User: Fold these one by one.
Assistant:
Number 1:
Amino acid sequence: MSLPDHPSTKPEVSKDGSVHRTKVLLLGTRRSGKTSIQQVLFNDLPPKQTFYLEPTMRVTQHLYDAKGNSTIIPLELWDCPGNITVDTLGAPLSDFSTVVFVVDIRDNYQQPISKLVEFVAGAYDVNPGINFEVFIHKAEKLQEDDKIENFRQIQERVTERLADESPEYEQVALNFHLTSVYDHSLQEAFSRVLHKLIDSLEFIEGLLNVFCSNTSSPKAFLFDTTSKLYVATDSSPVDQATHTLCCDYLRMLSSFAPLYKSNAASEPRVHALSPTPTPPPTATSSSPASTSSARALLSQSPSDEPSSGVAKKSLFYPSAAASLSPSHPGTTLTYHLVTPHLALLALLPTTVYEMRKGLVEWNVVWLREGIREIWEVEKTRSTTTHFT
Amino acid sequence: MGASGSGKTSMRSMIFSNNPASLTERLGATIDVEQNHVRFLGDLILNLWDCGGQEAFMESYLHQQRSTVFSAVGVLIYVFDIETRELGRDLEYFRECLEGLRQYSPAASVFLLVHKMDLVREGERAAVLARKREELERASGGKGVTVFGTSIYDETLYKAWSGIVHTLIPNASTLSRHLRIFADACSANEVVLFERTTFLVIATSSSSAPAPVDGGDISAAEAAAAAAPDETALNPKRYERTSELIKAFKQSCSRLREEFHSLEMELAEFTAVLDEMTKNTYVLVIVHNPVVETAAIKMNIRIARRKFEELQGDNTPS
Ligand SMILES: Nc1nc2c(ncn2[C@@H]2O[C@H](COP(=O)(O)OP(=O)(O)OP(=O)(O)O)[C@@H](O)[C@H]2O)c(=O)[nH]1
Ligand SMILES: Nc1nc2c(ncn2[C@@H]2O[C@H](COP(=O)(O)OP(=O)(O)O)[C@@H](O)[C@H]2O)c(=O)[nH]1
Ligand SMILES: [Mg+2]
C-alpha cells in the first residue's frame, strides 16, 4: 500500500500545516503559576518545590517532542513572563493551537481578565480556531464553596468583558478548568487540553470503548507514562477520584520498578506466551477501528506488516494489577504497557481479572495493535509535516 | 521524648494512624503525655507515650512524674529537631532522661532521631548527620544509642521505625530463618515481610548482600555500599522506600473508599507479588527469574500462610 499525499489531504489539518498544532502558549499575570505548571507537569518538580521558582524574565520554549516517541503529540510549550503582550511575544498568534491562560483564583481579576481579553482579540483576527484554556489556578487554597463561587464569577466576568468588546469574540473557544499543582486536577485539565490536539483521538477512544465493553471495565485510561497525562479515555465520565488513583498508581509503579532491579540480572525478558495478535472474536463486529474512516487511516501505516511478525513476539510488555477491596465484587486496577510510552490503566471487576485473564489479555493485545497502527500514522504525519 | 515541635506526634500519626505528611501541619502541641496502645503484629501491644515537649512538661517528667515516666520503659525515642536553636538545653534534658532510664529501666534501648532532615540540603545530609551522630553519641556517655536521620517527607521515617520495632519483636530470628526457607521455595531474590497496618519492615531475606533491619548494622551496610558503588548492588534504600510507596498508595485507595489488598507485577526486570501473608503481615516476593510466574508465587504464599500464622502464634506470651 502506498502512502497517499499526506497530510494536505486531511481535512482537519489547517492549511498552514500541522506544525502549528503543537505550539502551546502559557500566559498569565506574574506569580500566577505558569512556570510551576510547566515544571510540575513535565519536569516532575515536587509541588512544594515550586515555592522556590525564580520569576520568568524571558519567553522560554520547552520542547516535548517525539524524541524517543515520548509523547503522542510533539509539544512546544512557551512559558512567558507576566508582562508579555501580543506584540512582544515574538511570534504571531497564528502559530499557536492553544493558549493556556493561568489565573490565580485569589487574585483581583481585573488585570488578568484584561490581559486575556487582549489576547483573545489579538488571536481572533489571525487564528479564530485557537483554543483558549483558562486555568483557574491554586484552587486548593480555597474551601469548596468559595472555589466554585470564584470559578463561576471569573467565567462570568470574562464572558461579559468579551461581549462588551465585540460580539464576534463569542466564537472563540474558551474553556475553564480549576487547577492546582497540589493534586491531580492540573494533570486532568492539561490532559483535556491535549485531547483537542490529537487528531486520532476518536479512534483511540473507540478502541478503549471496545476494551471496556469486552472486559466489563467501568473505566480505562491510556496514559503517557512520562508525563503521566492521559491521552485518551473511554466515553464514560471521568471521576476525579478514579483519575487520581490511576495517577498515583502509575507513579507508584514507576518508582517501584527501579528499586528491585539488579544490574546483574540476565538479558531482557521475553514474554512467555505471546498470543497472536488478532482481534478477539467479541471485538471484531463492534470495533470502531473497522469503520471505513478508521480503516483508511490505519491502512496508511508504512510498517503495515502482518501484525504477528517475529520481531514483535520477542517484545516484553510489563504489566501489573492491584486488587482493591472491599467493594463488591472487588475491583482490580490493571496496568499494561501498550507502547514503550503509553500504558493502559483499567478498572476491572476482580472476577473478570481472575477468572477470565485470557480474555483480558486478548483485548490488551488487540488494543495494543490498534494503538500501534494509529501511532505509526501519527508519526509519519508529524515527520512529513516537519519537512513541509 | 523531645523538644516541642520537634515532630514526635507527626511521626506517630503517620506510622500508626496512616495519616499523610500534609496533615501533620494541623497538629497542635501535645499536652502532657498522650498514651496510645497500638497493636503491632496483632498480639504485640505497644504502649506509646507521646510526651509533650514544652518545658513545663519536661520538668515534670524529670521530677514529679519521674518514676511513672521512666519505669518499665522498653524503648526511649528521643527526637532532636535538626533546626533547633536550643541544642544545649535539648541535650541537657536528654542526659537527664538517660539518667532516669538508668535508674528505673536500665535495659531500655535508646533511639535518637535527628528529625526534619529534609530541611538540610540534600548533598549535605550525610555529613550533617555524621556530625550530629558523633555529638549525640558523646552526649550519651557510654550508653549504647542508635542514631537515625529522619524526615516525614521521605523513606527515612520508615527505616528508623523499622529499626525501632525490630528490637521489640520477640522471635525475629526464627522469623528470618523461615523467611529464608520460603524465599528458597519461591526462587525469590528478595522476600520482605511487613507489618500490616504500619507497613514497617519486620524481616527480610535477600539472595544478594545481607541487609539486616536492625539499626546498628544498617549504617554499616550502607557505608559499605557507599564506599564501593558496586554495579550489581541493589538499591540500599529499597525496603524503606517500599514501605513509603505502599503506604502512600494505600492512602490513595482509601480516598476512593477502597482498601488496598494485593499487588502483582511483571516488569521488565522482575516479577513481584505483594500479598497478605498472615492476618497481621504482608509479604513482598521479588523474583528475577523470568520463568517464575505470579500465579506460582501466589500459590507459594498461600501454602506458607499456615506456617507463618503458627510462628506468629508462638509469639504470644501466654
Ligand atoms: N520540614 C519538616 N517538618 C516536619 C517534619 N516532621 C514534623 N514536621 C512539622 O513540625 C511541626 C510540629 O510537629 P509535632 O509532631 O506536632 O511536634 P511534637 O514533637 O509532637 O511537639 P509537642 O507535642 O509540642 O512536643 C508540624 O508543623 C509538622 O508538620 C519533618 O520531617 N520535616
Ligand atoms: N497554593 C498554590 N501555590 C501555587 C500553585 N502553583 C504555583 N503556586 C505558587 O505560585 C508562585 C508563583 O509561581 P510561578 O510558577 O513562579 O509563577 P509564574 O510567574 O506565573 O511563572 C510560587 O510561589 C508557587 O509555589 C498551586 O497550585 N497552589
Ligand atoms: Mg506533639
Note: Confidence is low (pLDDT under 50) at residues 1-21, 66-70, 271-313 of chain A.
Number 2:
Amino acid sequence: MSTIAYPRLRARVGRNRGVVVVIGLLVVLLVFGAFLSDRFRTPTNLLNIVEQSTGLALVSLGQTLTILTGGIDLSVGSMISLLSTLTSGLIAGNAAMILPVAVGVVLLGMVIGGLNGLLVITLRIHPLIVTLGMGAVLQGVVLLYSLGPAGKVPPGFTFVAYGKLFGIPIGAIVVLVLFALVAGFLRYARLGRYIYAVGDDDEGAKLMGLPRARVILFVYAFSGVCCALTALYLVARFGVGQPYTGLNYTLASITPVVVGGTMLTGGKGGVLGTLLGVYLISLLNNVLNFMDVSTHYQLIAQGLIVIAAVSIYVEKKKRI
Amino acid sequence: MVDLVQSKPAAATEPKRSLTSRFSHLALPVFLILLIVISGLVSPAFLSGSNISNMLLQVAPLGIVVIGQAYVIILRGLDLSVSSVMATSAVIATSFSGQNGDVLPILLVAVGIGVATGIVNGLLVTKRSVSPFLATLATMIVLQGFRFAYTQGAPSGNVPPLFRAIGSATWNGIPYNILVLIVLAVVFGLLLARSRFGREVYITGGNPTTARLLGINADRVTIIGYVISGAMAAIAGLVLSGYVGIVDNWVGRGFELDSIVAAVMGGISLSGGRGGIVGGLLGAAVLVVVFNAVLLFGLPVQLQIIIKGVVIVVAAAFYVRRSR
C-alpha cells in the first residue's frame, strides 16, 4: 500500500540510494555502539567523533566536486602537507602573523588548485595524471622547505580546532555550514548545475556551449581552498605543521565520496552523501576502538567498505 | 572470426605518416642516450663501472613491476596495489626459517598472494565494473591491513641467502637481478607482442566492444592482465627484499607511482591499446638514470620527487599530442 501511496518518496529514495544506505549503516553502528559501551553513549564521545572528522570532511568536500565533474584530485595530500607546514613555519609563534598567513595560505591553495584545473584544460590529459604529477611536485617542494615540523603557532590558534560554540566544536559547525552552502550551490546556482552537466556528458556539455573550462577551473581551485582549510585545522589541532601531515588524506578523501554514492565516472551524487560517508568512517573507527580492535584491522574494514560501496553502487552497463 | 583476429592489417590501408611520427618512437631511446652522455660529461663518476652496476641493480625491481603494469595499462586499467603486494611478499620472504631450503615455499606463497590480489582486482573491474583506480586502491588497503595485522606492525626475520644473492650480488659487475628482469621481460614481452593472447590484450584495451564482437572473452583477458601484474609485483618484492636485506612493512613504497610514470613515459597510453614492454622498460631506465644523476650531481634529493611529477605530466602531454 505504502509504495503506491508515496510514489514521490519512493522516487526520491531511489535517486538517493547511497544516502539511504549510509544513513541505515550509521543507525546500525550507533545502536551497536550504544549496547557495546556506556562511554560510547556519552555526548562527549559523540562530539568527539564529529570533531575528529573535521579535517576529512573539509578535504572530501572539495574532492566531491572534482569527482562530480568526472575528474579527481590526487594532489590534496601533498597540498595539505605544504600548506600546513607553511602555516606554522610562517606564523612562527607570532600572533600578529596569524591572519595574513591564513589568508595567504587559502589564496595559495586556490592558485595551486587553479593551476591543476588549467593544466587539465590545456594539456587535455586525465586529471589523475595531472594531479598525481602536481602532488609529487608539491611534496618535493615542501620537503625542500622543511624536512621536519616547522615553526609553531601561538596557543590561541588551537581555538580553531578545540574551541566550542554552544558546546559544539567550531570545526564541526564550519563543516556543517560549508556543506550546506555547497549543497545549495550545487542545486540552485547555474555553475553548480554545470558541474553535473560536465560530469554527466563532457562532449554534450561542450556542444551545448557550457563554459566547461570555467567549471573545471572552479572545482580544482575550490578543492585547493578546501585543502587550505584542512591544513589550517590540522595545524590548530597539532600545534605545528609538518611535511607528511597530509600523506594519508589523498586516498582517504576519496573513500567518503565513494561511500556516499558519488560515482567516479562523474555527474551523479552530491555532498550530503559525502558528509554522511565522513561520519560513517569516523563512527566506524570509534566503535572499533571501543571494541579494542587494533588499527590494523580498522584498515581492513575501511578497504572492505570501499569494495562494498563501489560494487553496490555500480550501474549495470549495457553490454553487447 | 579467428582469421579476422590473427590477420595483420593490410599495408595499403596504413595511412601515410609524416617523418616526425615515423621516428617518434625513437624519441625515448635517443633521450635516454643523451641523458647518459650528458650525465657522464657533467660527472665522470656517472659512467664508472660501479655506478652503472648500481643503476642496473636498481632498475631490475622497477622493471619487473613495469612489465605487469604495462599489461594492465594496455587493458585500459592501472594497478595501484603493486606496492602493497611487493611489501607483502617481502614480509613473506622473512616469515620462514631464513634458510635457502625455504625459497620454494616463499616463492609459491608470495606469487600466490600476488595472483589472488590480481584475481580480486580483475573480478571487481570486469564483473562489477568498478573503476580500476578504486578496485586496486581498495585491495591495496585491505592487503596492507592484513600485512600489518600479521606482523603486528613490527616484522622480523631474515631473508634467505639465495634471495640476498639474487637481489644484491653481482657477477663481474652484472647484477643477478637484472637477469631475472631480462628473463621475465623476454617471456612476457613475447607473450604480448607475438602470441594470440597478446593480440587479444591489445584489441580488448583498444576497444572492449570490438573485442567482444570478435568473440574474445574480454573479461577473462582483463583478469589475466591483473593476475600477471600481481605476480610480477610479488616477484619484484622478493627481489627488492634481497636488495634491502632488512624487512619492513613498506618495501616497495612508491613503486605504484614510479611504475605508472615509467609506463606512461614509455608510450603506454592510459587510454589503452597502445605501447609495449620495451617502451615501459626504457621509461624505467630513464627514471633510474635521472634519480641517479640527481644524487651524483649533489642536488637535493627532494628534486627526485619534483622531477618525477613534472616528467609524468610532460610525458602524458607529449603522447596525447602525438596521438591526435
Note: Residues 121 and 135 of chain B are 6 Å apart (CA to CA).
